[in-house]
Automatic annotation (TrEMBL):
Pfam families assigned: PEP_mutase
Name assigned to this protein: Oxaloacetate decarboxylase
Membrane spanning residue stretches: none
PANTHER family associated with the record: CARBOXYVINYL-CARBOXYPHOSPHONATE PHOSPHORYLMUTASE, CHLOROPLASTIC, PHOSPHOENOLPYRUVATE CARBOXYLASE
Signal sequence coordinates: none
Gene3D superfamilies per the UniProt record, alphabetical: Phosphoenolpyruvate-binding domains
Species in which this protein is naturally found: Orrella daihaiensis
Domain of life the protein comes from: Bacteria
Length: 303
């Protein structure tokens, strides 16, 4: 019997090998840049710009899916559904913000298994108490360090692919200082975390101190207007970071540019003033692989 092989557009066929590619990239003499995305459109923008990884931002998911700030409002079920669609839409590894793991050790195990099946290549879990808050906002509370160690051990044990990265984040800096935050990160490294994420250091000196103390790969969180200085990738690499996320850069740009477009349309009744800042009809459809989809349709039509 003749076999038929087909190449399906991204969005119909989940690619393999993403986990190993991300882990391998972290071992190279460079820094991995992972801009934030919150839906298939923003993930496409990240991938098409040539980035080797992306970051599925929890705050972006909450804002775009619910119209709510990053305060633990979005449910895990809503997150998994959206994450699966985002992972299917691009052929680059994606890291997913999994907040606190959504409960005790059993919940963490389910979180890791469901997100791994959804297609992510890295899962970030933090030591905040629930309901969590944005890492650059006040009022965050952290759990006992042993509780977070249990979360990390459960996450490491739950993954099916050892190449899936477990990223441990601590939010202890703001309330307890940088030394306590580093001590916590080192405990999480001992528990098996692949990447350490000390959230919201407040100076270049603190960022350098983090990387002098931690010998595992570290993550820098670049939040425009947040608590941490925003540096370019080469500077972050010089400071010792191996991974840099820019979680809401696209969100902020879309919010500002979209607001200006809507105001212009309301005042002028037209969008012509923004035409040079838009992709045209064909450009938008091609962003989503329209030729590949039409070729696939044509292949099986009228058989």
């Amino acid at each position: 019997m003749m076999s038929v092989t087909s190449t399906y557009p991204v969005g119909l066929s989940r690619s393999t090998g993403k986990n190993a590619r991300l882990k391998s990239a972290l071992a190279e003499v460079s820094i991995v840049m992972a801009p934030g995305c919150f839906d298939c459109l923003t993930a496409k923008l990240v991938a098409n710009a040539g980035f080797g990884a992306g970051y599925i931002t929890g705050s972006g998911l909450s804002m775009s899916a619910l119209g709510a700030p990053d305060m633990g409002v979005i449910s895990f079920g809503e997150i998994v559904e959206r994450v699966m669609r985002i992972c299917d839409s691009v052929d680059i590894p994606l890291i997913c913000d999994a907040d606190t793991g959504y409960g005790g050790p059993i919940n963490v195990i389910r979180t890791v298994k469901d997100l791994e099946r959804a297609g992510v290549s890295g899962i970030q879990i933090e030591d905040q108490a629930w309901p969590k808050k944005c890492g650059h906002e006040p009022g965050r509370k952290v759990v006992d360090v042993d509780e977070m160690v249990g979360r990390i051990k459960a996450a490491v044990d739950a993954r099916d692919d050892s190449n899936l990265l477990i990223i441990a984040r601590t939010d202890a800096r703001t309330e307890f200082g940088i030394e306590v935050a580093i001590e916590r990160a080192l405990r999480y490294q001992e528990a098996g975390a692949d990447v350490l994420f000390v959230e919201s250091p407040e100076s270049e000196e603190e960022m350098r101190r983090i990387n002098q103390s931690i010998k595992a790969p570290t993550l820098a969180n670049m939040v425009e207007g947040g608590r941490t200085p925003v540096f370019e990738a080469s500077k972050l690499y010089e400071l010792g970071y191996k991974l840099a996320i820019f979680p809401n850069s696209l969100t902020r740009m879309i919010a500002k540019q979209g607001a200006e477009l809507m105001q212009t349309l309301k005042q002028n009744g037209a969008t012509a003033a923004f035409s040079d800042r838009m992709v045209d009809h064909r450009g938008l459809w091609d962003l989503f692989d329209y030729p590949a989809w039409t070729d696939l349709e044509r292949k099986f039509a009228n058989q």
